[in-house]
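Journal club side-thread
Mid-discussion, someone asked how the predicted structure for our own chain would compare to the paper's figures. Pasting it here so we can look after the session.
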Amino acid sequence: MNLGIKLLVAEDDPNMGMILKTYLMQKGYTVFLAPNGQEALNIYAHDDIDACVLDVMMPQKDGFSVAQEIRRTDKRIPIIFLTAKVMEEDVLKGFEVGADDYITKPFTMEVLLARLNATIRRSFDDGKPEKNIFHMGKFVFDYGHRSLTIGTNTRTLTSREADLLRLFTINFNQVVERNSALQKIWKDDSFFAARSMDVYITRLRGYLKADPTIQIINIHGVGFKLTQVHE
């Protein structure tokens, strides 16, 4: 269920951080470990994070502040707080800023895993999150708002452009078969639907030229792949 899920773990205690990272990687998660709140936000901004485990008490930015900033751009990403605090007002504050669950220290790794899996299961339909915010190269793609942003420039996409770009982004660096894309987006694999898709892909390629490292490439006889190339 957790295969391929990218997990941000923010914990300022280096020993606890490494224990969490090692254990969760053994359970199949891809884990990004941050030693403080600011580094957690940096990781979130540059990696396609699927779920967060945040210690409340951290230097630079506490877990509450980190969660608030993440929630400004993603209302759905699962967030679990870890804390030694047991005061009711702290627990309530955690949920107010967007926590999905709240685990008090000390806890066992088995309990954390069970709570994490349960939170993810509630949030995801098929074990992967329904992503709305994607980071690719210099672009930020907000599927919910159908916007593609690079620097200070934002372009509003049509519904079909956004649907097609999302299909490519959730399969980043993987081949999307032509017929599969037609069935998922157009619900039709006719000649005319195929020509229509080619037009939309040409449009998306035009938009992506603002960052030459991000490209939709043809896989001859199979389909397409959205990937990052190195100049």
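Post-session note: The first helix runs from residue 14 to 26.
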